[in-house]
């Protein structure tokens, strides 16, 4: 990103202690934004980390001449999230954008998934997106502007094996963002989603691959889908240049940026007098099968290499 398109803006980034969130925070700071670096400081499986990743990233930003504030609250907790937003406003005087990239994984095949596996992932991803967005909403409404950038995933948009909890949360974030864009558009507030393809610790435990396949897959991802390649799209959506863009779902993959479709009816069957189970059994599948969405995974849909 060239220039200082975000000069003076205050932006909260969750999950900013490493990977995608860190690269986003550094890129936003280079663009002149004052960044609230939020990271709970846990490992991917939720265990306490040995140091404060949020403080490290904030220190890196300030050492480069930028302005940053570290926050170690949990986005899964409403009180902690509300306190973080209030602290951001009191420290910097305003709030212009929120980027929610915090996440955890509890990958397991569905019939083995526990309620705790499901709940913990939903709390960080979907509840976290609600908490941080809802806490920021009154500030945005009052000032008549604001931008949300919420991270979704192709796991929810397309499909993934062993990630029913993660996919459910990520698709829920799309609906949340769409609703925010409709409810708050009248106040000059916009909300968009990004489905990033970027190597980070979040993809190191993707199930369904042998150790050899996993290493080949990860080595390729390290080279072709870097976290810093997603950051420009985040910066754009936080900037005034995107003031007319809201309610959309974007993807970023290597040097590619793309727009996802959103669900709309694609075929219709009408029968005078209505339908019965018997008539549906006879007519529905033959009429609609060619339009069924196949059970594909992300790598089936993105059949070309990222460059």
UniProtKB/TrEMBL annotation:
SUPFAM superfamilies from the UniProt entry: NAD(P)-binding Rossmann-fold domains
Stored Gene3D superfamilies: NAD(P)-binding Rossmann-like Domain
Source domain of life: Bacteria
SMART domains for this protein: PKS_KR
InterPro entries according to UniProt: KR_dom (IPR057326), NAD(P)-bd_dom_sf (IPR036291), Peroxisomal_Beta-Oxidation (IPR051687), Sc_DH/Rdtase_CS (IPR020904), SDR_fam (IPR002347)
All copies of domain Ketoreductase, residue ranges: 9-187
Name assigned to this protein: 3-hydroxyacyl-CoA dehydrogenase
